[in-house]
Automatic annotation (TrEMBL):
Taxon lineage: Bacteria, Pseudomonadati, Pseudomonadota, Betaproteobacteria, Burkholderiales
Presence of keyword ATP-binding: yes
Species of the source: Paraburkholderia tuberum
Keyword Nucleotide-binding: yes
Pfam families to which the protein is assigned, alphabetical: AAA (PF00004)
Boundaries of every AAA+ ATPase domain copy: 135-267
CDD domains named among the record's database cross-references: RecA-like_protease
Family: Belongs to the AAA ATPase family.
Keyword terms, alphabetized: ATP-binding, Nucleotide-binding
Signal peptide interval: none
Protein name: ATPase family associated with various cellular activities (AAA)
Amino acid sequence: MEHFPIIQALCRAALAGASPALRKQVERLRDALNEEGQTKQAASLTGLIVASERNVEVAPSKLTASRGFVGGEVLTPNTLPPVDRETSAPLAEIIFPSSIQAEPPLFNAAVTHAVGSVIEELANADAFHGMGVQPARTCLIFGPPGTGKTRLALWMARELNLPVVLVKLDGLISSFLGTTARNIANLFAFANRYQCLLLLDEFDAIAKVRDDPQEVGEIKRVVNALLQNLDLRKENGFTIGITNHARLLDSAVWRRFEVQLEIPKPEFDIRIEIARAFMAPLTPPSSHLRLIAWFTQGASGAEIEMLVRTYKKASVVNKDSAQGLLDTLQQFATRNAARVEESRRALLFSEPGTLFRAMKSDPDLNFSLADIGEVAGRDKSTVSRQIGKPARSIN
């Protein structure tokens, strides 16, 4: 479809505040494109529909969550967190809903639905109580670094209108291991006293496999203390654990968490939306967002944010030059080699004809010659000639 980028932009704008009837029309357009064999354009509209539904799907059905699942006193800005007796260092940070980012993190449809179901349960805790069942009170969020696990936990607290008692467990471990067990007990006693969400970040720092022969007996007792306090906490509030290293967790720890939510690295369509979200106040062309998403295959949301920052800096520094997006990507790949998937990096630094052919044939990118010329800072005829050149063989 010759003018599909314009149609795509119109659909994106319309879906931002779409009624069910309008969404249905976009779905009809997608289905018609599929029937005509224009699967790339249809897939693009599917991505827009999924993204537009995300804000609605994740939010709970009630604006204010039921308080049936939490008890205790109300936390105020004047409430001081518990401290280590030896060092007087705080054992936790208290974060109030008003200071948490309002926008939900971007995940695929499966994760989005799962998060929505957890919040929905907690929002309807009173109704569950009448049927003799309870909402899930513990959730373990795990996955690679930079995928938005902590941001998701904080956002869930905001949706539930609960302050967060945030604990970095690696900082909780004292050189005096007996003190660590006492700190854990004090921390849970504090969380159980107040209406809050207890967030245990870097969970693997303390919840280690107890059968590891390299661990001393005292660490095992610390893990047991943690498990016992998790069991007691179920009757008092909601607890989220976060880890980048799920394989390090004791099997007994896994059993304590009713919800075990894996956050994967983002797929192509989600990478586009993550790049778009970080671009403000810039509004780059669709071809730029698609190329950034293509280039960041295997990257986390945090790594995409880093690339977008490089893009924004380049837009300021090179605003009067003809430097294309490919030059910016090459700069990023050189300065952040370990953060770029090897095959994408090899293509980026290959001869132009090889790179342009890969971009032209990739079904996700769906690039025209004009698109390639725009991101490469070259005219369409030059791109066409370079695509037509045979790749040089290396003997």
